[in-house]
Amino acid sequence: MAAPTTTTPPPRSTKTLTIDVLSYSEMKKNLANGKCVESDAVIAGGHSWRIRFYPNGRSVNTTGVATVFLRMDNTAAAGAGDDVHVEFKFTLQELGGGGGPPLFVSSTFTRAFSSRKTKMFALRLTRFVSHEDTGKSVFAMYDRYTIRCDLAVLPPPVKTEAAAG
To answer: Would you state the pLDDT for residue 41?
Structure first.
């Protein structure tokens, strides 16, 4: 009986994406529901990634709700039927805050982006809420900030095959 063979997966590919919001109040006035701003693309794990920020929501039922998405641009780069597994989290940081603590850090999400269709994963920024006495959202308190996404493209699952013998 032949021993199984394994393929060593490539290491995790990590990158950081950022988008600066210079004036949330102005952006909210000027970008209607469904309109967004995008970060520059970064390449991680052989795929192009961006942050998309919708200050007035992406769809009719989210009007007035700021939403951030992680997007994989080039879904055709993956092999047919392969999903791209990603671990990511969003951080909201005061712009020019001099390295102070983040205003918010999301949970870490692990998701599979499909190579068969364009797919984005959302985290509504209404969850970025201050628990201070004022009860105001961080958007009301800080008009300028950076949205950061720490991204790790995970290696594909290891496939084991029995060697022919």
So the answer is: 94
Residue 46, number of CB atoms within 10 A of its CB: 12
**Which tokens hold the place of 5?**
């063979």
Interacting residues of 105 by C-beta distance below 8 A, sequence separation 6+: 89, 90, 91, 92
Using one digit for the tens of pLDDT, what is the confidence trace for 103-154?
A: 888 889 888 887 666 556 655 555 443 333 334 566 667 788 899 999 999 9
To which residue do tokens 């641009």 refer?
A: 73
- Return the structure tokens found at 101: 């603590």
164 part of a folded domain: no
Q: Give the pairing of strands 104-105 and 67-72.
A: unpaired
Please state, in angstroms and rounded to a whole number, the distance separating the CA atoms of residues 162 and 144: 57
Q: How many domains does the chain have?
A: 1
The enclosing domain of 93 has a CATH number of: 2.60.210.10
Helix, strand or coil for residue 147?
strand
pTM exceeding 0.85: no
Taking a C-beta distance cutoff of 8 angstroms, is the pair 9, 154 a contact?
no
